[in-house]
Amino acid sequence: QVAASAENLTKIYGSGDTEVVALRGVSVSFAAGEFTAIMGPSGSGKSTLMHCLAGLDVATSGSVRIGDVELTGLSDKAMTTLRRDRIGFVFQAFNLVPTLTAAENITLPLDIAGRDVDKQWFDAVVTRLGLTDRLTHRPAELSGGQQQRVACARALVGRPDIIFGDEPTGNLDSRSSGEVLEILRAATDEFGQTVVIVTHDPRAASYADRVVFLADGQIVRELRQPRADDVF
Ligand code: ADP
Ligand code: ADP
């Protein structure tokens, strides 16, 4: 079962003298329940690929599917609904709402969607991310690592089919990175969710089932069951 896929994806920014080809015909698919890390040098197209897969950016040509839904041609409204109901985002720009507490930030997407919060699952996520005694704090009262973990909890709490992360451990100390990676691993192993992250962190990649390497807008290599040594 395929959770997401891209076929012959091309992305060109700008035109004429300023044209940059960020993706050159990328085809890749992500099996349901699998944890994939996308790695590669800066400028190789990782963020662009992630944004196109997640429906945050539109490719110049090619197609993207989330589950059995083809994203090309979806209306903005349908796209927003799909993102809201099926996709979780753990991005480095935390985008936490400064006036809300950690708990309110975590449940905000569900509140907006009018969905119920599963209290038991909320507690499980918060406990695993070490946020139990930070729930009434506002973002300004939290460390960077705690803010990142709140963003992670927010992505997980609605049990999305697929979780996209852009450097989810990028700003974290070793302990917080471990907690985030463990919970992403648990999302796949225990609950069959699909995880796709962009990372430079060999430790993050070592948690993945598969590493896909990009260079100059193309997939140049894939590894299964990587160890940290393989990806330095
Ligand atoms: P990575 O995430 O691997 O660092 P990106 O996907 O961010 O790579 O960028 C791939 C290429 O596309 C780079 O050459 C980058 O400069 C260019 N690029 C990315 N975003 C834009 C943009 N909004 N406008 C123009 N060029 C862009
Ligand atoms: P049951 O129907 O047996 O209660 P649930 O799906 O509600 O099964 O989940 C069982 C336990 O796993 C609960 O503690 C729940 O909070 C937790 N859980 C549920 N979904 C997820 C998930 N996607 N990731 C991690 N834990 C989850």
Low-confidence stretches: none
- Major sheet summary line: 6 strands, mixed
Q: Mean pLDDT across all residues, rounded?
A: 92
Portion of residues in helices? 25-40%
In DSSP terms, counting alpha (H) and pi (I) runs of 4 or more, how many helices?
Answer: 7
- Could you say which small molecules are bound to this protein? adenosine-5'-diphosphate
Strand content: 25-35%
Task: Specify Rg, calculated over alpha carbons.
Answer: 17 Å
Order of helices and strands: EEEHEEHEHHHEHEHEE
What is the rounded distance between the termini?
Answer: 31 Å
Largest sheet: spatial strand order: 6-7-8-3-9-10
How does the overall form come out from the CA principal axes? Answer: globular
Helix/strand-derived class? alpha/beta
Oligomer: single chain
Number of strands: 10
GO molecular function, one term: transmembrane transporter activity
Protein name: Putative ABC transporter ATP-binding protein
Domain ABC transporter: 4-232
InterPro entries: AAA+_ATPase, ABC_transporter-like_ATP-bd, ABC_transpr_LolD-like, MacB-like_ATP-bd, P-loop_NTPase
